Amino acid sequence: MWVCIYMTSGIKAKTTGETLEAHTFACLSVFSSLRECYPDIGEKIGCPEFYKTIFNALFFHDFGKAATGFQEQLNGGKKWHYRHEILSVPFVDALPTGDTDLVKLFVLTHHKDLRELARYTGDPEDELFCGSPFKEYLAEIIPNLQKLSGILKEYPRLMNHYFGEPADLRPIDLTQCTDESWEHIIQSTSKCLRDDRCKQRLKYVGIFGKGSINTCDYLASGGVRKVLKPLPSLDAVFTYPTYTSIQQRCRETKGDAIVISPTGSGKTEAALFWATNNLNQAKGNRIFYLLPYTASINAMYQRLSGRLTPYYKDDGCVSLLHGKASYYLSKMYDDAKESRFLRDVAKKIYSPYKIMTPYQSLKHLFYIKGYEMGLLEMYQGSFILDEIHAYDARTVGLILSMSEFVKNKLDARILLMSATLPGFIRDIFADSLGISNLLTMGKPELSGYTRHECSLLDGDICDHIEEIKNTLRGDEKVLVVCNTVKQAQRVYNSLKGIKPSSRLLHSRFTLGDREKIEREVDSLDLLVGTQAIEVSLDIDYDVCYTEPAPIDALVQRFGRINRRRREDVCRVYVFTRGSEQDRFVYDDLLVERTLEELGDLDLLHEWVLQDITDKIYRNGFGNDEKLFRDVRKTFPRVIEEIIPFSDAERTDDDFYRLFNSFEVVPEKFRTDYLDHIQAGDFYGAMQYTLPLSRGQYHRLKEEGRISTTEGMLFVNARYDSDLGLLVEERDPGAFID
User: Fold this and answer.
1) In Å, how far from its chain's centre is CA 248?
2) Distance from C-alpha of 212 to C-alpha of 469, rounded to nearest angstrom
3) How far, in Å, CA of 444 to CA of 431, rounded?
């Protein structure tokens, strides 16, 4: 609810001209809706006065902007070299009661952490001191005290409005304030954080407090006045005459759960029904839908936005979060202002539904700047972990440790979901998280989802090129899946002339070219691809030829065939040999076991697939088991190292480099990329980027085929818009560094 302010101080808070009182009350409007979403957070962290503390910190947080130097800077004058947060602290002494030191701490740290603020303490004569005498800057506020007094007079009315407790402020004398008024806060907090017991008492008060203040401040600065809640019911959103058994059980299930159900059985809706049924008491917690691949995240975002936006009249009800989200939003929305808004609010507590990669949540546990908002948002969240088997052993270990943390420390709920989930992963999550709800279909219902007949073809894909060509000459839409980019390029070159509507899809296309291909894939006669097609695309083909892979990867490939059950059953063919490079992609033993099990099958019944998946993965992660266990041992220690009011000395880019590939631009597009950068067209430049694996990057770098310009990596390899990056071939027109 808005609180009307009739006075105008004329003190600016923003370069837009927004006044201090207008910004303050915008912050308090967001505060009101945030408190509605998480009403019990003070009780959870043992701080019953939590929201009063946050209210007070928000009221005073920008008073230091009244300094004449800061006002001149906002009006286009010279840069002001001090921190307005420091000058805001003395005003907190006007509070009649309460823990003013904690309020001061939140005011001080709402932009900078303790380490950065410490640079402004100490002896001005010290050569390491980068501040300036506190009283000198504080004196700049004196000319505007009369204007500030009008805002201070609003405090009793606001306290009454938000808490039903009017309270008068005490008079303060700024001329008597010294450095001690704020430096002792830095010193006492730093001392507390060196003591384990004291640090633990302050930990979640600090994290949730700073997260709350930053959320209110940043959203208000972006023109937002409230935090959206999830819909209390989805009955009007998904109107079905009947529900599948999985959907009905998810509508009734409370607490953590594991769902194993075939493709096409309505798992997405089932998961959202579960999340809605597990909303917190205030029905205000966030719903996180985690997927492994960018394309599937983009598709899910568009799907849910289309469904949910009419009930909010706001595109921001669903957020898109992954490494390239800003680029895709700029393409999805013609209005640049709209895409910027959606990009910005996605990183804050605003949207009730978030479609994302797990890395977007994991990075907050490495306490990268802004992590407090992320952890606050995760409080009492509902996490839907889709296709968990698609990740490597290290990432599964990270996700499991994160799940334990959000469940045990943040009261979150977890739903694991897959069409075919290896039993050992199911058991690890069930045992570690105490999940007792296992939701599956019975055989009678599962039999309605049998869509494939499987045949093994002796030899490798090259031995059967003529057979694939013959199939292409018919009316069937053909999907060919290879395990490596190099093999996919070779096979595509052999097949592409048969049907005019043919494309190749893999990870080494530029962002712009891949986007074009993905728009076409469901209308092609032939698609040759790699693992990029496994769970990324909602496509429906008639027949599949695939190189051998572990059963769970094959099931995902088969899922692109007869997806909408237009036929009774369709054929899927698996070659018994892959290429020499496959050993770098898949565990040989898992592939061998998969072929043994498939050799005895014809119809791929869903319950049979689950049984053989469990047999094939009977040794867990196999060669990567040690990696999984090491992560499970070390990552909880990283989480435990989180220190309130402190950021890790790492950036988002540093974090993603731990997991992701390297972004590069082919030499062919060097000039185009740099022209866009020079013109300030960041998204236009991004269309020329593509990923290289860490191994490929280091090999090419050793060969002198990687160069850097304007902070971007350029790779000396030939690029073809039909084939993608050909890493083995140098670009004849390459720039010589």
Assistant:
1) 29
2) 61
3) 29
Q: What is the pTM of this model?
A: 0.92
Give the list of residues 6+ apart from residue 657 with CB closer than 8 angstroms, or none. Answer: none
For residue range 409-439, what is the model confidence (pLDDT) as tens digits? 999 999 999 988 999 999 999 999 999 999 9
Give the side-chain half-sphere CA count within 13 A for 154.
22
The whole-angstrom separation of Cα 628 and Cα 470 is 45
* Mode of pairing for the β-strands spanning 706-709 and 712-715: antiparallel
Residue 436 makes CB contacts below 8 A (sequence gap 6+) with 255, 430
Q: How far apart are CA 643 and CA 179, in angstroms?
A: 25
Query: Token match 């469990």: residue?
Result: 614
Lookup: tokens for 358: 């797990």
The amino acid sitting at 565 is: R
Three-state secondary structure along 516-559?
HHHHHHHHCCEEEECHHHCCCCCCCECEEEECCCCHHHHHHHHC
Percent helix / strand / coil, the chain, rounded to 5: 50, 10, 35
Report strand pairing: 478-481 vs 526-529.
parallel
What's the CA gap between 284 and 382, in Å, rounded?
11
Angle formed by the axes of helices 245-252 and 267-277, nearest 10°: 10
Q: What are the tokens at 267?
A: 């798992």
Structure tokens at 411: 């009261």
Look at residue 327 and give its three-state secondary structure.
helix
Closest CA to 354 of 309, 387, 321, 315: 321
Maximum CA pair distance of the chain?
Answer: 91
Q: What is the pLDDT of residues 323-349, one digit of tens each?
A: 889 999 988 888 888 888 999 999 999
